[in-house]
């Protein structure tokens, strides 16, 4: 239940903050949200030893994100699933700490923004350059890292009966 609450709130926060914070190049806020991507990192421990269920959940979340925010059906569904595999790799090979959450959040946001930039450039959907991708990336890290650390701290405070694995 908790992972679904986190995902729903993240989707809502993405939409609300995207409407209130400027996001055009040259007018980009330091607080560009990618909360849904952060949520797929934070919910992984709730799916301990249920990787298939986790990847299906992440795919569906990406599909919902596509429908509500990007109008590029299956793009985010596939990309979120790829990010889910990356999270799976890190979760199984690196100890879960707040520093790992920080590093992995930066990595996930970077992979997402670069992959989106490559798609936009490759299909000429909008005029985009490496500088614009870097500019957007640099402006999306501040708020998303903060959100990941806050969510991680909140989940640390939950009783163990709600978590399938330790997040320490």
Structure description:
The chain is mostly helical and 168 residues long. Helices cover 71% and strands 0% of the residues. It has six helices and no strands. The longest helix has 28 residues, at 130-157. The protein is globular and about 50 Å long. The two termini are 21 Å apart. The relative contact order is 0.16. The model has no long low-confidence stretch (mean pLDDT 83).
Strand-helix topology:
Blueprint: H1 2-20, H2 35-42, H3 51-70, H4 75-93, H5 98-122, H6 130-157
Helix pairs in contact: 1-2, 2-5, 2-6, 3-4, 4-5, 5-6
Put the structure in a nutshell.
The protein has 168 residues and is mainly alpha-helical. 71% of the residues lie in helices and 0% in strands.
Order of helices and strands: HHHHHH
Distance between the first and last residues' Cα: 21 Å
**Mean pLDDT, all residues:** 83
Strand content: under 5%
- Structural class comes to mainly alpha
Radius of gyration: 16 Å
Percent range for helical residues? Answer: over 70%
Shape: globular
> Would you count the extended β strands for me?
0
Reported for the largest beta sheet, the result is: none
Task: Count every helix, treating DSSP H or I runs of 4 or more residues as helices.
Answer: 6
Low-confidence segments:
none
């Amino acid at each position: 239940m908790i992972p679904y609450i986190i995902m729903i709130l993240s989707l809502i926060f993405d939409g609300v903050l995207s409407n209130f914070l400027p996001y055009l190049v040259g007018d980009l806020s330091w607080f560009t949200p990618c909360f849904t991507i952060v949520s797929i990192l934070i919910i992984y421990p709730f799916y301990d030893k249920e990787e298939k269920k986790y990847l299906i959940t992440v795919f569906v979340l990406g599909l919902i994100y596509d429908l509500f925010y990007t109008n590029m059906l299956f793009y985010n569904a596939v990309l979120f699933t790829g990010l889910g595999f990356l999270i799976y790799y890190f979760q199984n090979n690196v100890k879960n700490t707040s520093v790992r959450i920080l590093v992995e959040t930066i990595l996930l946001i970077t992979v997402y923004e670069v992959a989106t930039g490559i798609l936009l450039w490759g299909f000429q959907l909008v005029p985009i350059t490496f500088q614009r991708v870097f500019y957007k990336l640099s402006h999306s890290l501040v708020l998303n890292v903060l959100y990941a650390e806050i969510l991680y701290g909140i989940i640390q405070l939950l009783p163990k009966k709600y978590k399938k694995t330790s997040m320490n």
